[in-house]
Amino acid sequence: MRLVGYICGVKNYMVPVIETRNGVKISVHSRKHLPVHIHAKYAAHEAPVNIRTSEVIEGSLPKKKLKTVTEWIEEEDVQKNDPEYMLFKPK
């Protein structure tokens, strides 16, 4: 993963964008809360996506863009790099 840039997040604080793929900006917000997730933004759509299940937690993304995010999660093996995932990973 690499830093691509920043977007304005909730309450106007800057959020690092770690990937931009097919127009989808993927970011991680610094406030830790479960479930472990990334944020995906595309045009007027924005949604936190669970990195364990690839499910949208709230909000929405077009189906093709959600597939882009899901593929990125699998390619980057995000779960492996998440210390909290190691504590809660499925057996």
Produce the secondary structure layout:
Blueprint: E1 5-8, E2 14-21, E3 24-27, E4 37-42, E5 45-50, H1 63-76, H2 83-88
Antiparallel strand pairs: 1-2, 2-3, 3-4, 4-5
Overview of the molecule:
- This protein is of the alpha+beta class and 91 residues long.
- The chain has one domain.
- Helix content is 22%, strand content 31%.
- It is built from two helices and five strands.
- The N and C termini lie far apart (26 Å).
- The C terminus is likely disordered.
Keywords summarizing the entry:
disordered C terminus; five-stranded antiparallel β-sheet; 2 helices; 91 residues
Kindly state the mean pLDDT as a whole number?
Answer: 76
State the secondary-structure class.
alpha+beta
What is the total tally of β strands? 5
Describe the main β-sheet briefly. 5 strands, antiparallel
Flag low-confidence runs. Answer: 8-12, 85-91
- Spell the H/E element sequence: EEEEEHH
